[in-house]
Structure formats: structure tokens, C-alpha cells
Amino acid sequence: MSALTALTLAQARDGLKRKDFTARELSLAYIKAVEAARPLNAFLKETPERALAMAEESDARLAKGRALPLDGVPIAVKDLFCTEGVETTAGSKILKGFVPPYESTVTANLWRAGACMLGKTNLDEFAMGSSNITSAYGHVESPWRRPGDNRPLVPGGSSGGSAAAVAARAALSAIGTDTGGSIRQPASFCGIVGLKPTYGRCSRWGIVAFASSLDQAGPMTRDVRDAAIMLQAMAGHDPRDSTSADMKAPDFEQAVGQSVKGLKIGIPKEYRIDGMPKEIEALWQRGISWLKDAGATAVEISLPMTRYALATYYIIAPAEASSNLARYDGVRFGLRVPGETLDEMYENTRGAGFGAEVRRRILIGTYVLSAGYYDAYYLKAQKVRTLIARDFDQAFQACDAILTPTAPSAAFAIGEKMDDPIAMYLNDVFTVPVNLAGLPGISVPAGLSGEGLPLGLQVIGRAFDEAMVLRVGSAIESAAKFEAKPQFMAGKA
Amino acid sequence: MALDKATVARIANLARIKLPEAEREAIAGELSKILAWIEQLNQVPTDGVEPMASVAHMKLPMREDKVTDGDCRDKILQNAPQAANGFFAVPKVVE
Predict the structure, then answer these.
(1) Is residue A368 pLDDT above 70, yes or no?
(2) Contact with chain A for residue B22, Cβ under 8 A
(3) β-strand partners of B48
(4) Cβ of A341 under 8 Å from any chain B Cβ?
(5) What ipTM, to 2 d.p.?
(6) How many Å apart are CA A419 and CA A467, to the nearest integer?
(7) CA nearest A247 in B: which residue?
(8) pTM (predicted TM-score)
(9) Where are the domains of chain A?
(10) What is the pLDDT of residues A115-162, one digit of tens each?
(11) Which residues of B1-19 are buried (b: 16+ CB within 10 A; e: fewer)?
């Protein structure tokens, strides 16, 4: 094991340019780390040959002094992004064996920027979950443990494999998707940075769809600067996604480290939810003091509709999922379980191919969209969604960014909270409103819980103001000086 | 609203998901709990509020009506569980 896996993306980029080491050496170090990380079950597919082939191309460009922004950077890809010629399962049995004949726009952008693919990471089935327990290919274990307690913990979800890989130094950075918190919550649980961009910033083309009006791809990285560098390469207009924003991205890295002096930071009074652990409240207060010390002002804001966000989400997301997942019919790709008639074949295939949580959400979605219930549930939820977005619009008239905890707790043990779907849904109480309003949000590691586990703070910005989110996020990062490492390190520093 | 077993069977049929009889009772219970929880939305007055279908404040883009993709039949069929003569094959639908 080498010290190469201890570098951040920005440090690795600079080291490659200085020729301190080659892209091939960096990829080899990570390929070893990916192998060492197998006990975590973070990767569903390892692609070492591809990583090395890409690294050699990077080395050729680096030698000529024509380096691309991500040349030689080994990254892990959530197995929800279609990758040409590499099996893509979405964590589901129903897509076992599916080899996409095309590449998602976001991954294509990353390869075009010089990044090297280490493999595909595990996730909750179809990104539906907050613990990585619902994957059809076994759960992911967090590289973190409570000191003195050997019970395995969840990495969070749904991008839990990506979060675990980055935290354990088995990938320099990773990409995930976030429909209700699936980048930010696992980032918080694993002590890394996770950024959900504005809806429309990154193309959704080639990402296995869960809830199309909420899904958004984003980076999961060691620090805030790395998130900015990754986002720069991922973002951009794509005519193949009709909701992709036709606007030029600003220089995100430039925003990192900019002073927050004079900024107004909104603190939503409704986010002090019942039963929230005192240490989360204390961490939030520390975050407020850090930003004040850096010259920002804290202002109380009100987001009264927040308390209805989860219920709204659990109508809209399953409704969209029931429609999106109708395509898994045993005809065009994936699993087929035979039946006497076409209908029987559909029912057998979908009955056997979907896991319990996915099935539950498809059934809820089908119900809320069915004749006689559409107005009472789905239309009602869409109206409340308008009110939730309006809350944020009004709040942003009085502040530049909003600070909240990322999740209401630290990571829990595998087996805890598993029996009650609603208790599991509460993990996303602070992240879901951001998806409903389509805004950018980042989770930055800010401290450890009493049990010694990472806790994140979330910064929310105006639509398309990721630069502000990165700026405030980097101020939190500088003040927090989070340097704790997980007990399990695949890439040893 | 509590769902009964018959309603669960009806939804499962609409969703084309085979649900063994033995599991319907338990699923009816789970779904009823979730529905009871989401009914808190009835507390929110929404008269005159526009339903939001998308957060992207933009018009759907238009393009010239011409073929931009295609000519990749074999690529499309390569993932099919069953294909024959350049088509997806399914159980007999018409007698």
C-alpha cells in the first residue's frame, strides 16, 4: 500500500502534473485498495483493466503536457449509471446481466475529462433506501465502527457503496445520485463530502430512473475542493435530457475558500425536530458559530412546509417510480420468468425480480395514481410541493445560503431500524425538501458523535448557485478540521 | 385509509406484480400504515395552489422533427431475454 491513496483529488492532480508519480501508479494503488476493500461489499463490479487502459491514455497526455482536468483520477461509479459494455444492475435482480450498449452522459463527461473507472458501486435497489440494505447483491458495510463495538454499521444510502469506497480510500472520488438524500446522507454517515447539484445541472440521460422530477447526479469526495472539480467535469447541457439546463457552469473550484464575510446564513427554525439527538443540535450550533467567526451573519428563517416534505416525497417518488419501473417487463432486458400468457410472464418476472422495498414503493405509487385516488394523493402532493418550493424562495430573499444538519442521527448498525419503513424514511427529513425544491445541497463532515461516528452539516443554496454552496461548505470544512479516519482503511496512507 | 387484501390484489394486478396470497395480508398492513402517515397532507390548505410537475423553470426545448438516432437494432436486441429474427419474442398473445 502506498501513500498515493492518502492524497485528495486536487493533490493527486498536481502530483501527476509535477510527474511525482504516473497515472498508472495511481490507478494500481487504487486497484489494490479496491481488492482490499472487498469485505465492505462496496463494489459490485471491479474494472481494473479498464482503469489501467484509461490511466495509460492519461499518462500519454500528461507526458505531452496536455493534461485534461481529471487525467489519471481513479473514480468509482454508482451502479445506477449505464456504462457501455460494463454490467449495470441498479442493485436489482431484475437487471442482472444487463450490459448497456451506451454510456450515460455524466460518466461520458468524466471519461472525456480523463478520469479512470475503477468499478461500479453497490447501492440500495433502484436507489430506494437509506441504508444500502435493500441491494439484491448484499448490503454494504461502512468502514466506520463505534469504538469498542464491533457491530457492522450501515454506510447510509442509497449511494452507500460509493460513500464507503471513498471513505475507505478505495476510490479517489465517486459519483452517486440523490433523489431524497442518497448522496448527502451516506456522505454524512461515512465522513466524506457529498454534493447534490441543482436539478438540471447534470444530465440524467443514461441513469437508471427512479423518480425523474427529483433524481440528480453528484460527486462524493474527500473534501469540498474535490467536489467542485468533479462537478465541473460532470455538469453541462445535454440535449438528450429535456430537463437539462442550457446554461454554462461557472468555475466551481474558484468558489472554494472564498471568504463568507458579509454573507447571511439562514437557520430554519422548523428543523429542530422532536427527538433529534442533542449532539446533532450542538453540532448545528457549532456550525453557526464557525460561520459567524468567519464573518457571516446568522438569520432565523422559516420553512413551515418542511414538516410535510417527507409525506409529499413518499407520494411523488413512488408514483414516478411505479411509472419508470414499468419498463422492467421481461421483454427488452434483464430477467424473464416464463408464464403461460404475456400477462403471467410480466407478473412472474416482476414478482421475482423486485425486492420488498421496491415492490412496496411500486404498489404505493400505483395506488396513489389509480382512478379515484389521483386527486386525493398525487395532485395534493404536487400542490404541497409548490408550497415547499415557495418556502425556500421566500427564505432566500433574506439569506444567501441555509445551514442544517444533514441527517437526524449518525450511522446505525445493520439490523437497527429495519422493521419500520417510516422510521427508515425519517433519515431523509432534512435532505428531502431540497430535492422537492430542486436546489443544490452539500454535506460536509463537521464532527464526531458521542459514539465516535461522523456527522455532517448541510448547506443549501439557491437554484444553480452551487458556487455559494461550495463557498460556505469550504468555510465549514476549514473550521471543522475533520480529520478522523475510519477504522477500516483499504488504501493505507 | 386502510387497504384490504382485495385492494392490494387489485393494485398488484395493475402493477403486474405477482403477490402470493400468503403475503397480501402483511403487505396490506404495511401499505395502510404508510398511507395513514401520508394523510397528514390533508392538514395543508391548498386551494388555488398550482400543482408542481417539475422544478425546472423552463419551457421544454423544441428541435427539428427529424431522425437523430437509430440503426442499432442488434445493439438493442442484445439484452433481450429472447429475440428471434430481429424482433423481441414474447409468449403468444393472439390465437
Answers:
(1) yes
(2) no
(3) none
(4) yes
(5) 0.95
(6) 40
(7) B58
(8) 0.97
(9) 3-263+406-480
(10) 999 999 999 999 999 999 999 999 999 999 999 999 999 999 999 999
(11) eebeeebbeebbebbbbbb
